[in-house]
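tool_log.txt
---
The assistant was asked to compare two proteins side by side. It first ran the structure predictor on the initial sequence, then on the second. Raw inputs and outputs are pasted verbatim so the downstream comparison step can read them without reformatting.
(1)
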Amino acid sequence: MAEPAGGGVCSLPREIREQLAELELELSEGDITQKGYEKKRAKLLAPYIPQTHGVDPALQKEPRNPTPAPAATSAPSSSKYHRARSGGARDERYRSDIHTEAVQAALAKHKEQKMALPMPTKRRSTFVQSPADACTPPENFSVPPDVTATTSSSSSSARPATIDLPPSGIVKGTHKGSNRSSLMDTADGVPVSSRVSTKIQQLLNTLKRPKRPPLKEFFVDDFEEIVEVPQPDPNQPKPEGRQMTPVKGEPLGVVCNWPPALEAALQRWGTTQAKCPCLTALDVTGKPIYTLTYGKLWSRSLKLAYTLLNKLGTKNEPVLKPGDRVALVYPNNDPVMFMVAFYGCLLAEVIPVPIEVPLTRKDAGGQQIGFLLGSCGITLALTTEVCLKGLPKTQNGEIVQFKGWPRLKWVVTDSKYLSKSPKDWQPNISTAGTEPAYIEYKTSKEGSVMGVTVSRIAMLSHCQALSQACNYSEGETIVNVLDFKKDAGLWHGMLTNVMNKLHTLSVPYSVMKTCPLSWVQRVHTHKAKVALVKCRDLHWAMMAHRDQRDVSLSSLRMLIVTDGANPWSVSSCDAFLSLFQSHGLKPEAICPCATSPEAMTVAIRRPGVPGAPLPGRAILSMNGLSYGVIRVNTEDKNSALTVQDVGHVMPGGMMCIVKPDGSPQLCKTDEIGEICVSSRTGGMMYYGLAGVTKNTFEVIPVNSAGSPVGDVPFVRSGLLGFVGPGSLVFVVGKIDGLLTVSGRRHNADDIVATGLAVESIKTVYRGRIAVFSVSVFYDERIVVVAEQRPDASEEDSFQWMSRVLQAIDSIHQVGVYCLALVPANTLPKTPLGGIHISQTKQHFLEGSLHPCNILMCPHTCVTNLPKPRQKQPGVGPASVMVGNLVAGKRIAQAAGRDLGQIEDNDLVRKHQFLTEVLQWRAQATPDHMLFLLLNAKGTPVCTATCLQLHKRAERIASVLYDKGHLNAGDNVVLLYPPGIELIAAFYGCLYAGCIPVTVRPPHAQNLTATLPTVRMIVDVSKAACILTTQTLMRLLKSREAAAAVDVKTWPTIIDTDDLPRKRLPQIYKPPTPEMLAYLDFSVSTTGMLTGVKMSHSAVNALCRAIKLQCELYSSRQIAICLDPYCGLGFTLWCLCSVYSGHQSILIPPMELESNLFLWLSTVSQYKIRDTFCSYSVMELCTKGLGNQVEALKARGINLSCVRTCVVVAEERPRISLTQSFSKLFKDIGLSSRAVSTTFGSRVNVAICLQGTSGPDPTTVYVDLKSLRHDRVRLVERGAPQSLLLSESGKILPGVKVIIVNPETKGPVGDSHLGEIWVNSPHTASGYYTIYDNESLQADHFNTRLSFGDAAQTLWARTGYLGFVRRTELTAASGDRHDALYVVGALDETLELRGLRYHPIDIETSVSRTHRSIAECAVFTWTNLLVVVVELCGCEQEALDLVPLVTNVVLEEHYLIVGVVVVVDPGVIPINSRGEKQRMHLRDSFLADQLDPIYVAYNM
């Protein structure tokens, strides 16, 4: 293309340059074709280019990729016909030219308003289907940390047990004025080139486009979230015609020689015209192999009837008696045996129920067929010898029991097994009445199979009506390509056939597969007068037509197209006629008809008179149809549907159109409704189902006033349509294919046709597309599933999917909720090879469809979400409080027992410092055992008495003086595995006047992940020295460590393994109890490293409160299975025993990995009354020992001694875990009241702890919807959207809590959710920070309420949301007990749509949706909700999770998921307390380091 004159592109205006750049991007991403690119570029540059005369600017430049596109080659196939069909040729079956043009126009229109849909990211290994190059590698190759050493292989689901990931470089109070929220809301620190970020950016841009319908203005909504009810469109078309009157068919002619019953006709022809051919069967190649004459049919049916009645049981107890139902199980290529069996049953007066041959034990519709057999009370099945041999067998040769089937007795009907009837035996042939003749099965939309019962009179009348309508005459030959067991195949080819002594040639489906032209050849060879086909057969014949030049169809007077009701039948008929008219096919011979199992033949076009004008077409507006109104399409030819008539009402019948839902009110003349037929020829009932029957078979239409019109009952046909001019019947769809979305009706077949009109040759198989709707969030949502060709590339598929979405949106004005592509040949099939829709839907909802590509568009089609909440401005805390008081609400506060009023004459009280307590104990009770450390085998490996601990602490203190040259007040990092060494080092530091900082040692196999945290704490705490073991000292200086951190700048490292025996000159005593005792560092779940300062007085108060709450004294033993590095775990491990004198049995949690029984067996062996553990320990025991309770009993483990089993935590109590733990181990004596939890936070490590006295922990159910509005509404158990919460133990003595609005800092009432503030003597004295950031300190540690506290109490903010409720229980003080419920961390909450969500609630919902979800975590990015799920199943299940996750979050939380990420087990980081670290996960996701199996971006 010529460049613009003068300076090339740079000289162009800026907006043109931007548009060009966008075009380049579209081309590079495959969103636009090369041709489209050239065209648009030419258009943009046209004004700036000096034109060369007469040459199209698009042709002036070479195309950018000169390689010619390879021709679509098809896989070699078993037959030449197959090859011709599966090649690149267009599939005419579903094609209507109007449709194809419409779709192309719609897509072109969309091209202009380009939709940039981000392509999903897929891992290479996952799907065999995708070629390797279809995956783009991340642009920034950051090498992920090598974790291979710890886990045996990357897919191993064992996550490294206790790894605190290095924080994301955020230290509380480190950098002045750093704003945390800014770090959360922007992708700080994420390389912008990251693939994920660009995709999400793309997604956001897509979502910014206005959606239909526009949301109304926001409003302030306090309590309930009101789901938007779709408002009717004021411009929608309404029916204007008059009420229709029922339409009559011509009268049924009276022919004098018509038989009194169908069996009489058989008897007549069988005895008088025995040599006449009745039925010819074809072999696999399409050649005739056997012809059944009327004589043979009569004699063999007689033999069978006699055998059935007389030879199956004994004379006194026959197995069958007249009126019993019998299953007919015959393969589709054996019409002869079927016909004999069918007429044999009629002659024996038993009722045949033809069903499909079951191929496997679990056939797609097999179970439902079982339901049909059961409801019909069938115990006997007739079949052929060959068929019986082919049925699946058990090991000992018996036929397997099919899933859901009753037990059947199988009878073989081959001639050699039948008894000849005696001369004097005659069947009873009575005049046809209303007794049942046969039962035809029908599959409903939900997949259940019902039996439509046809009476003998209906069977006979239907044959008469068909004979009259089709003008059959004796001896004519007809070709039947349909299934002869049901519907038109049975009615014409088996029943009307005998009535009129016709000769039927039956062409089975299997022959059509190998030789698609076989039916045309049969018509040609046998000069057949009538052929019965479906559109599919017309289509196949056209595909194969070039192989056969010399066929003639001039003998055909009727080509009956039985699925004339399909939207694509009109184009199939047209195309077939245009191709075969030169072969003698007469235009008037094409006769579409409409049928249904209930109403049988509803209407059929009569064979026309040569030269008469052909019936007209209706070109209807799709928009009108969606409102159930007939409007001739004028305005927009793209959204039009062309339908052909299916002829007139049947002779002797009457038809009316009623509203499809509600009472059967007659429609207006320009309204679409369900076609109902009244005649003697319809079905009479669904066998055994009286309730459903009445609604379908006994319909009395009513007028608009609701009064019945006439007293003739009609049968609902299940077809939607109208009666047009000249009483012609038009069908526009089926009730089963009706999708009602937001009050508008769409037809599944129409949507399929639209999807197929998008050029799909490279991507999907035509004819393998399923469309259905699923109910999600108060409306139906459309799902499209198609089978993808194995050679389709990711880009092709994705492009096809996005174009289908656009086409459906344009033509039908409806959004598709989910579009999924599955591997070829994996959709459940119906017996004749179509798609089993209800089964497909079932698979989709169960998550067993296994798609290989999926696109969800909830943002565009879910328009009924409640409006976002806006915070009410200008309501101050004072007015809130006054409002609460006026309403009689309590201010939400609670307190533990008052410390001042508790007498404890303990000698410990006179010591202000723990160091003094230890010295006093070493003198008073030197040999009293304080600590006992166990190994994995449960044997004590180390113990410490009061004196031993004191001596060891002295030695460590002297080493600190000598080697470390430390001054009082220096910080010392203690790096030890859990044990007594750690405790000794802690007291050694206190003796030396240093400030200990306990740090979890790095994981030797995972230094890259764990060492940076250690380094960071060492740096932030400005440690002057590190105390550790020899092993760890070597590790800190190793080569591997050097790869992770700078090992040259460690402070002095002292190992305490071999200490000199040296007397400490004096033990340091702090001048005041307010002096610092130790620093407590911990990484929060949001990835923040915080260190808090604990003073000596706080330590003393903390130990005293725990001692009082748990009644600890020196004769007691407790067992601790916790990590001893921070929070309450550290306090219990290192401090409490020294203060209270009780004995602590220490169990390092990592020992449980090699011996799961360790903790419980210790508790049992030492008869422990009080034990403390973490959630990770409890989870290990629940998951690992859940099925080994018997083994525990065998080991003699008994937990009846346990009075309290306390989980130490800083989160909402995990009720489901504690409850399942209690239930599991109740069998070995664990009391249901024993398990409770604690609650602590950074500012105060122990706020609640159950203890020994006081009422049991209480539980409440709260309404989740109210919780999102920061309100607490208690509901009954089992209420929808309810959440079970448990109290977090009892508030410790000396502790006060109050619930505060985090924004206004005013107190709230007890019906509100707010931040928990705490006041207590053991609150930490502040954050330990490098620069003393006073503002942060004051905000978190010394805060006053903004209103309503006269005493001006200083409170500390815990950062957790919760509420207080007064219970009916009595506290120790005698007052009613106030329970504190923790709901979740404020930092973790997600603000979405103006509401507050707790990640754990969304995660709980997601984890429930599929058995293969091992773990799940959610976070937000910009305003998108991202859900990460760990897949523990096989990778082909990855994409099943996308719709399930989207559905459940929408249903239960009213949120639309923006991105679903499926990862391997163990990817979601979990810290040592068993808490998910969502912020780390978020950073890894944005930095593209998760190596996901699949990332789906929901539109």
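(2)
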Amino acid sequence: MSGSIPFYQKHHRHYDRGYRSRETESKVSQYQASSRYAAGSSTSATSRSTGLKVSSHSGLEASRLSPMPKRAKPTYLAVDKENQIIGYVVPIFRGSQEFATGFSNTEEARVRDTAAYMARRDMFTSGLEMERSELISRKEAMRESAERISLNKRIHEHEEHFKRMNEDSLMHPPEFVIKPRSHTVWEKQCVRLHCTVSGWPDPRVIWYKNNVAIDPLANAGKYKLESRYNVHSLEINRCDFDDTAQYRVSAMNSKGELSAFASVVVKRFKGEFDESLPAPRRASTEDGPVSEYGITFQTHIVDKFGVSFGREGETMSLGCTVIIYPALHRYQPEIQWYRDDVLLSPSKWNHMHWSGDRATLTLTHLNKEDEGLYTLRVTTKSGYETYSAYVFVRDADAEVEGAPGAPLDVRCLDANKDYIIVTWKQPAIDGGNSILGYFVDRCEVGTTHWIQCNDTPVKFARFPVTGLVEGRSYTFRVRAVNKSGMSRPSRVSEPVAAMDPADRARMRGTSAPWTGQIIVTEEEPAEGIVPGRPLDLQITEATKNYVVLSWKPPGEKGLEGVMYYVEKCVSGTDSWQRVNTEIPVKSPRFALFDLAEGKSYSFRVRCCNSAGVGEPSDPTEATTVGDKLDIPSAPGKVIPTRNTDTSVVVSWEASRDAKELVGYYIEGSVVGSNVWEPCNNKPVNATRFICHGLVTGEKYVFKVRAVNAAGLSQFSQESEPVEVKAAIASPTPPYGITVLECVRDAMVLAWKQPTFIGGADITGYFVDYREVIDGVPGKWHEANIKPVSERAYRVSDLKENRKYQFQVRAANIAGVGIPSLPSDTFLCEEWTIAVPGPPYDLQIREVRSDSLVLLWKPPVYQGRDPVNGFYVDIKEADAPEEAWRGVNNKATEKMFLKIKNLKEGETFLFRVRAQNKAGVGKASDVSEPVPAVTKPGTKEIVVDVDDDGIISLNFECCDMTPDSKFVWSKNYEEITDSSRLTMETKGNKSKAVFNRIGEEDIGVYSCLVTHTDGASSSYTLSEEELKRLLEISHDHKFPIIPLKSELAVELLEKGKVRFWLQAAQMSANSKVDYVFNDNLLSQGEKYKMNFDKNTGVIEMVMESLTPADEGTFTFQLHDGKATNQSSLVLIGDVFKELQKESEFQRKEWFRKQGPHFIEYLGYEVTPECCVVLKCKVGNMKKETSALWYKDGREIKADEHLGFTEGVLKLEIAQISKKDSGVYEVVLKDDRGKDTSTLNLTDQGFKDLMNEVFSFIANSSTPLKITSTDEGIRLYTFVSYYNDLLQVTWHYKDSAIAFSDRIKSGVVGEQLWLQITEPTEKDMGKYAIEFNDGKGGLRRTVELSGQAFDDAFAEFNRLKAAAIAERNRARVAGGLPDVVTIQEGKALNLTCNISGDPVPEVTWLKNDREITSDDHCILKFASGKFASFTITAVNTSDSGKYSILVKNKYGTESGDFTVSVFIPEEAGGKKK
């Protein structure tokens, strides 16, 4: 077939034709090999002999396991009527007795077998037959041996087969085959409850008593639990009265949980009743069933989940808080969740949690299958409570724009070995284009590879999937396609195995345990039998894409399994064509594809086995290929009705003659928008649906279409528009009936408003009464014919000292509601107490997180004296009765009270008591619980004053309903007189306008919005607030143009004078008058006016000021009726200063037309203490000259002058007094000249030096301490020293008077203070102060303590070292290094010696001491001079000589060398 591949095959990676071809080839090759093997063996003869009848196990493939293909393969597994394996079957064959007895279990059986064998042997009439019989027996023995091997192999393959099977396809939840039944027994008897449970995996069974698990170990001997072969029993030993209870047995496995209940009632013999035990209460319709003695559980579901909206792929949690009273520690209710009345079980899609007080259902991954009505059911022993709300699931965003939504509810039907039929439901959204069809994908369990099952899209929502591997499990999904693209895939189906239903049912059944029993049956040996005709062939399903055939197996098929060939024939011809030539069918069902649409076909089926192919079945009637199921017709008339303020009930007429209807889809559209949105994404089966999530107040139209497997019908006609708002119903019953006053023949009753008023205001109440005589109530009588508007009514014509009950009904425009419950029984007798009766009709308004307002009505019964005040009590809702406390310590005369300082989030109760002179009366009924929470969107009353000065109160409500009204009150009494206030309401806003506000209007104003959840607010108009509002009103009546700035003056360039102010806001029609000394000014040469209305800046500019301009300037502003003015007075010195400055600025402007100084000559001191004279110049050019002068003499340009970036500089490196003088810089060129002078003489020079001194002082280092041999020295370093620097040294904050002992000085950049020969008196704080003419800088050091000790010790050490150095022995000089002398000459050397004390003198020759003698004379005279004399030297006097002087301070030596020569030797050397 040529042509391009359709786009829906090109764009999907998982579609692989090659993979499909390989799989098909593999299957074909397997079947071909099997056929060839069977054909090769079909000619073998089979033996005819009597044998054992063997039951075959259909879950095993006999054709593949048996080693002998020519006959049926028995399984030798014994099964019961339910196909459950109960043992093995061992056949007895004809043959030798030894072989036969080998299979007998007892001696008796062997004897019986032997007798039978002998009888059969006698029946043979010839030896030939005997020989043949023995031959057959031997063959049978060989076959039995082969069958044993085959059996082991089949058992092994059977186990492997189960391993390949997916558990989920075989699992099923527990089911009670036999439920426990209830028992009534006498005391001390035993009772046994038993049940039979099926399920796979095997369920775990737990027994409960009153929902408490039974523990046999905790009650030894009391309970006995047994479980055998899925039969479970609970035995209660010696029952007593406490064993009367409800017993529950719970069976649980991985697929779910199921419970069954039974009751046990234990009776006592008459006279043995224990009076101490509480008597069991009878269950009543009011209290519900009672499980134990006197205990009735009350269940309340609060914090409920509402109608919820989700999107596919999201996670959603639904939860409710469950309150059960009384709360028993070990008692837990049964929590169940339902979707569309179907019980949900925990799964990967649904997670359920019960925390003890809150039930939660989590939908982990939303799909449209999860849409529906969810119900929480809480079951206790006293009954159950339910709550329901709808969950809507919208389609996820399409991966391709315009693609349809995903199909839903994919399921597998009619699973067989050869095919599985997959069904689904069409999506509600087609993406704007009709759906072309659907693709079915499959995935083998345990893998993640998806394979597309159909090459072309199918429009029918049902498709048989073929090409499956027998025994394997699969999951399926479906995708929709239109011309825009492919949808997202649906949620995957549950796993299903490709196997016969009988095999699946057998695997789900419960097998009996192995008993060791072998069942022996007789088998009639049969040779290969050609199977007969299949029976009851019929077409079970036909579409234009496929036809499904089903039939029954033939009656004659032998013991072998059979396969089938399907044949087709075009109507009008006799040519039969085999459809499944290469792939025989194993199950009696088959799906045919590739049939020509519109043609008629007949079909027939043949059976085949190893013996051959049987006769064909009877052919079917001619069937035309096409969809037999028609698309349903469009639904009938659609009728929408109001429901709530966000939902509408839509009902319609069902589609006529619709077959296999799946449900309906509803779509809605806002009138005029022409945009249709689906109201449900999962078909609904009913003809009524509540569409939620609509916009309040909008009008909608709806249309409906039906859906079945053939497709979606046409839309119905659009409905009539309906406005979304709450429907009106009659109110619910009032409640809380109490007596406010009682006289001899009348009672005054009060009651509380119904919790639901039906969406319309209550128009009145009707009261009924009845007399109660001896506890028996009589007939009801009407107390009032006309409705009463108040919630209090006097019932007259009663009889004194009679008892009565009352009931009340509320009415609105929808009708009269049902009556309330009968009140308590009241005695009609006159009250005579002195204190007042209870207040009534408590109402709560303006609830905020920290406050609320409580209103009440005064008691009807005043008591002996009039009521003169009220007390309000408060307590937390969960607090005990003792927790009541007063809100007001002093009685209030008003009938309302604002209660403040509430704890946010806490729930409170209130009551009111009235007092008179006799005392405080009975408290009122308790109010409803009120949580102190500010609701979202809460608004407050806002006070507004308009432009005309009119004062109004404004209130806005965001939660209004169509029937809501604004009710304004003063001091919480509705305002009916419009003379003081006028009310206006538009939409959700209301305004109360004061007509003539005054002191009589002082009070508390409140606004209540009816038909809301208590939307209200109040505003207190006090005397101070009234005064403030009147001032604002006056300002608005007589407005003043606000000014951002008053009239001011400033000088502009060239000395111009600018008068200006800025107004806050001016309109386009505003104007300004300019006035000077009461004279109106106008635009001209002298005055330039400008008014910028956008910015509000008003200005007037004058070129210059003259003496005639002295006076008052005024700007007068006009903007409609708003006015303002601002004046500026310029007289006297103020005017003169301004005029002078103007002239200066004018001159400055002209000066700056040529070269000029931007910054005049000044100086700065650098960190290096250099002085730089500089000025900044502007408007320079090349021809401009800049000359420096000092004292009138020009300073020649050198390296000290500079001019960079418009700055002239003169640097003075080391300033001194000679640098004082007057410096001047002159700029000039052809445009003009400018001069700048700097006086650095006297004070100017002094200020400069002070700044230099300040830099020097700041550069000084901290004072440090050091020691010398003369004393202790304090010093500091500066970065630069100037001779003019004035420094003062201080000791203990006093200036030091210098002397010979204490001196100061400067060495380089070091400033020091020397203390000679210091003593302890010199200890203290020293400081050096630098004088810079401002405040100076002082550096201090503390010379005391350790610092002084260390310095003094160092001084003594240095002093001693100096003395030692000064007095130690020294050789001052006179000795040469080398003396060369002629032999015979005299040598005389003298040197100076010093030291105190006088040193000792020692002479050495060659490091040996020598003494004075006649040859060598050594002298030391006057302690200063040492002489060395040799009278006549000779050669022996040559050598190294040393003089060594030594005293107590040290030693010193002097060395010289004497060399003696002989003249002849000298002459010889010269030669």
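---
observation on (2): The chain has 13 helices and 102 strands. The first strand starts at residue 77 and ends at 79.
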